[in-house]
Design a protein that fits this description.
Blueprint: H1 2-44, H2 66-106, E1 115-117, H3 118-121, E2 128-133, H4 136-142, E3 145-150
Antiparallel strand pairs: 1-2, 2-3
Helix pairs in contact: 1-2
Length: 154
C-alpha cells in the first residue's frame, strides 16, 4: 500500500513539473515574440523610435519563477503598446508633413519661409525644402517665391 501511495505522489510531482515546464516554455515564447515585435517597431520607424531603457536586471543569471517571467512579459507588452502608439503618432505627423510639402510645391507664395526636412517626412538623408524669395529682396518685394531644395549634409 505504501508503495502505491509513493508512486501516486511521484506521478503527481512529475505532472506538476511537466505543467510548470510547459508554462515556462509558453512564457519564454511569448517574451521572444514580444521582443521581436518591439525591435520591428523600433527599426521600421524613421527616425528610429527610442525603445526606452532596458528592462531591469533580475539579480544576475538564474532561473526565473513563473511570476517573474509573467512580469517580464507584461513589461514588454506595455512597452510594445507604447511604441506602437508612438509609431502611429509619428506616421501621422509624417503624412501631414508630406501633404504640406505637396502644397508648398504647388503654391510657394502661400507658404513663405516654411522649411521641411527629410526627418520631418520620415525619409533618409539631409534634404531640406525651404520656401524663399527667388532673387533676394527684390524677389520678396515682387512676390517671386520658390521652393529651394538643399540636399547637402553637414
Amino acid at each position: 500500500m505504501a508503495a502505491i501511495e509513493q508512486i501516486q505522489r511521484t506521478g503527481a510531482a512529475t505532472s506538476e513539473r511537466g505543467a510548470e515546464r510547459a508554462a515556462r516554455a509558453t512564457l519564454r515564447d511569448q517574451i521572444a515574440r514580444l521582443e521581436r515585435q518591439v525591435s520591428t517597431v523600433v527599426t521600421a520607424s524613421r527616425p528610429p523610435l527610442d525603445p526606452g531603457p532596458p528592462l531591469p536586471s533580475l539579480a544576475g543569471p538564474r532561473l526565473l519563477s513563473l511570476g517573474e517571467l509573467e512580469r517580464v512579459r507584461d513589461a514588454l507588452a506595455g512597452r510594445l503598446g507604447t511604441l506602437q502608439a508612438d509609431a502611429a503618432v509619428q506616421s501621422a505627423r509624417q503624412a501631414d508633413a508630406a501633404r504640406e510639402l505637396e502644397r508648398m510645391l504647388a503654391d510657394p507664395p502661400a507658404h513663405k519661409w516654411l522649411r521641411l526636412s527629410n526627418a520631418d517626412l520620415g525619409l533618409p538623408g539631409c534634404t531640406t525644402y525651404h520656401v524663399r524669395p527667388r532673387a533676394g529682396l527684390l524677389g520678396m518685394l515682387m512676390g517671386w517665391w520658390q521652393v529651394k531644395i538643399s540636399g547637402g549634409c553637414p
